[in-house]
Each structure stands twice: as structure tokens, then as C-alpha cells.
Design goal:
The complex is a heterodimer.
Chain A lengths: L1 H16 L5 H13 L1 H39 L10 H23 L5 E3 L14 E3 L2 E2 L3 E4 L3 H6 L10 E3 L3 E7 L5 E4 L1 H4 L5 E4 L5 E10 L4 E6 L24 E6 L6 E9 L9 E5 L10 E4 L4 E9 L6 E5 L1 H11 L20 H8 L3 E6 L1
Antiparallel strand pairs in A: 1-4, 2-15, 3-6, 4-5, 6-7, 6-17, 7-10, 8-9, 8-17, 9-10, 11-12, 11-14, 12-13, 13-16, 14-15, 15-16
Helix pairs in contact in A: 1-3, 2-3
Chain B lengths: L1 H14 L3 H20 L5 H21 L8 H19 L16 H24 L3 H10 L4 H7 L5 H29 L1
Helix pairs in contact in B: 1-2, 1-3, 2-3, 2-4, 3-4, 5-8, 6-8, 7-8
Classes of the chains: A alpha+beta, B mainly alpha.
Amino acid sequence: MNDKNDIMMLDAVERYIRGEMNPDERLHFENLRKTNGEIDQLVVEHTLFLQQINQFGERKNFKSELHDVHTELAQQGKIHSDKLTGKAKVVYLWKRYRRVTAIAASIAGVTAIGITTLVNSLAPHPKDPKVQELVHEVTVMKQVQKNLDQKINTKADKDNQQVFTMPVRFNGTGFLINTSGLMITNAHVVKNSKNIYVQNNKGDQFRAIVLRLDPTKDVAIIKIDDDRFKSFSSLPYGIRKTSSDIAESVFTLGYPRSQIVYGEGYLSAPTGFEGDTLSYQISVDAYPGNSGGPVFNKNGEVIGILSTKETHTERSVFAVQSKYIYRVIDELRKNKLWENVRISSKSTMNDLDKVQQVKKIQDCVFMVKGD
Amino acid sequence: MKQEGNEKALLLGLARNDRKAVESIYKDNYNMVQSLVINNNGSTDDAKDIFQEAMIVLYEKARSGTFELNCQIKTYVYSVCRRLWLKRLHQTNRYLEVGDMETVVPVDEDLEDHAKKNTEFEMMDNAIGILGEPCKSLLEAFYLEKKNMQEIAFSFGYTNAENAKNQKYKCLMRLKKIFFTHYKNGNSDE
């Protein structure tokens, strides 16, 4: 009861400070404030607090705006910064190294150096150190495009096939949920990133943006926002709307390393860590970098999103249940721009064996990189 | 005369957080600051840090409403950056005479204010960090993203706004407690 009064009082104080009271209420409240020292104190204290948190928010926004402006102006060449990132850097480096690259390619038939990654200590789960997020933290990533010579000869895509270095901090996995580039990954994979890129199993890289972040469910919707991305005619898999049963066999696809990796296991419990009803427990090998990747059942339906793993137990992995993808999509649809987004629960791979299923699926699973 | 009006408009724009104004000030001043820093033992990263810090000083001053700029924006930004960079050099034991290419105005007072705000910003940042989830996201949604309780209840999966409100209250009490403990300590330390 007391608690309830406190809540109402603070609510009133907040509305008073924000000027949201109507004149009568305001008058009444001001009288109360005059006669009750405690309330007056609360108003003073809360005013200070609101001021602080507002300043905090404003500054935080402004900081991220400055960051954006910097990147944009640098890309447009309006400021001289050698810290180009993203596409601009790729283009710049391409122009600079075009000849070197071509020569190197013709002489050596450049082989992949692949990805040199420094896997650091893994980001701990915000709530519990016993669970770790399966996101790959990478300090520096250097990649020399595989099969460079071949790509140059075939004059495939121009911009993204070259030598590039990009400061990447996080790696995870994501997968398409519609044909035009809408993807799902974990919120913890992208939440701290300014620039997000996704890369398919052929090594093509695309820019992506975050449309919706739901940290409680640990689900993020991102969208490929890049002219070079070509829409798919259809997706081979659907997203399962209902719950799955334990003992069902499952498989995963993800990017714990630069190449796509397949994993096989079974659904071991209907809830996640400490009874978390958002998730399933799954027994499968998973590594940092698998975060955000799809979990499929034998019919090739997505039943979950791989997210965390019990720190000291092998093969004990948690996946966000696929029905929550629908919830997050529902939230996204409230935005006028996205109200027509539809995702399908139909899979067209029922009769195929695993090898065929994976062949079809792998083009729709991407590495997600953020800086 | 025209330029003066222009500068005033830019500052007003900055105070409103108008992207065009921010870009314009950024574009007109960044290269100058980068030369300053690079010619004085710094990197482009240092230049970006220092310049953005100065932008925040300018932004917060512009927003305060009591701000009268008695010199060009350029001069002010340069002065702030110069001071900040000297300080940074000093902290890392790299002493250097910064040779001036531009006019300099006194900014010490402004930077004292700014340092105080920096401390407060960090206190709030730490306090919110300590809170953990779901409090962090909940309070950020309400106080920073200015969402209403209805929306918040929905996107966080509370059954109704009333439940969300109760949770928000608990989180808010914790945040205030953490913040004010540091705030009061911080102020009495001085």
C-alpha cells in the first residue's frame, strides 16, 4: 500500500516538473508542496535528477551524432581524415592498390590468408557470468579476399572484392527472414555497433542497418541497406510459429570463423538458463561467432536463434524461441514504414536430406560484423 | 556583418541539434584542428577526440541559452582544442610548445564547467551501467528515448502499463540511489 503511494507521489512529482499537470492539479500540488517539507524536498531532488539524466541523454545523442557526421564528411571527402571506414575506405584502398592487387593476383593467384582473428575473452552475459554470449570479439581483422584473381577476371562486383582492413569489434551470425534483405540476429551482437556489415559465404560484404533492437528478448532486426544486394526470389525455409518438442534433432549454421560452419544436436529442454521461458536449451557445439545464427529442425524450419552458452558446460547452448521473432516483427510493423512486412512459416525443404537443405540455406546465413 | 548573422544562425541551429548546422561547423573547423593536433605530436584519432570534445563544449554552451560568443566560432573552437590538447600532452608527459596559427581567446572557465559536466556524465553512465537489465533498457526507453509507458509496456512484454510503471519505479529508485551516492561523494571531495 505504502509502495503504491510512493509510486503515485513520484509520478505526480515527475508530471509536475515536466509541466504535464492541468492548472487545478498544479495548484493543488503546489499547496501540498508548501505545507509538506518532505514533498518539497522530493521535488528539489527529482528536478536535479531529471536535469542530470536529460543532460546525459542529450550529450549521449550528440556524441553519436558527431560520430555519424564525422564518418559522413570523411566519406564525402569534406574533411581530411585518413580514418575512413566502410565503403569509402574500400573504394579508397581499391583505387590506391588497384594495380598492386592486379599484379599480385596474376602472379601469385593469391590464396586466402583468411581471417586472422584475435579472439579475446568473451563478452560475459549481462545478467549472469555462468552464461556467455556467443559473439566474437575481434580486435583487428585483416582479410585478403580469397580468389582475388578469379574475381578480377570475371569482373564481378566492383567495390567489395578488394583488400580491405576494417576495425571490427564484434562478429556474430544473422539470417534472412524475407527476400528483400530483412534479417534476424541477437541484440547483443549489434547493440554497441555504429556501422554494421554482413558478409555471405562467398565473401561479399554489404552494409546493414538496425531496424529494431529488443534487448530483453535478445533479438535484433537488421536490414541490408546496400544497392549491391540483390533480392532473393524466395527463401527455402520458414520461421516456426509454435513451440518445438524436446528430443527433436536440430542443426545450426553460423560463422565462428570466416567460413560457414554446420553443427548438429538436439533440443534438450523446453526452457533456457534457469527456467527462462524465452529460450530453449539445445545440445550442440557452439562457439563465439555463432550468436544470432539460426537453429533448424529436420524439416528445415527455423525454431530458434542461437544466443548464449553455459560457460563451464560444453554443448549446453541456449536459443531464443522462434515465435519471438514474430513478436518482434509485430512491434516493427507498428512503424508505418514497415507495416507491410510479412514473414513466412512455410518451409519448402521437408523432403530434402540435410546436405541439400544446407546447400539451399547457406546463402541466406550471413556473418554480422560491427565496429 | 553577414558573417556574424550566419554564425549566430549556426549556433542556434547547433542548440536545436540541427544536423545541417552540426555538419557545417564540423566541416569548417575540423581540418584546422587536425593540423593543430598532428603538427603537435598527435594522431588523427587524437584530433577527432579533441575536436569532438570541443564540439560538445560548444553544443552545451549554445544550449545553455546564456551563451554570447564574442569571437568567431572558429576562434573559439581553436582555443578550446588548443587548451584541451595541451592538457592531454601534459597528462601524458609530452610537453610541447604549441605554436599558434590562429587567434586564441581565454576558455579556462568554460573548460572548468565542462570538466564538471564530464564528471556528471560519467557518474550517470556508471550508475546506469551498474543497474543491469532490464532496468537499464527500461529507464533508457523512458528518460532518453522519451517513449511513453504504453509503448514501453508493449515492447518489454509487460501485461499492462501499470506493471511497467511499477517496475520503472523500482528501477528509478535504484538508479537515483546509486547516482546520488556518487554525486554527493563527488561533490564533497572537492
